[in-house]
Amino acid sequence: MIADDEGAYGIRFRTEISIDIDAVDYLAAAEHQKQIELMLRDLRAAYPNLVMSVRPRRAPRVRRAAEASRLRHYTGRLNTYE
Q1: Which of 2, 39, 51, 80 is the 20 to 30 A CA-CA neighbour of 18?
Q2: Domain ranges of the chain
């Protein structure tokens, strides 16, 4: 993208790269982080404002199925007919 005469850009956007890493412990995770930092060195030369964040990720929560008695009102049925 080319800046105008005043150095302003018309569009600003963010690019995110996501890498999920499975590590047995924090020491192994630190080794992965070190390798990624080395890979990002060239990108950082071109984009000095590059930021890398590493954070632990938890497994998704398992949700219980709703009980049938709580779902009854979602069927559209107004009354129970026998």
Answers
A1: 2
A2: 24-56
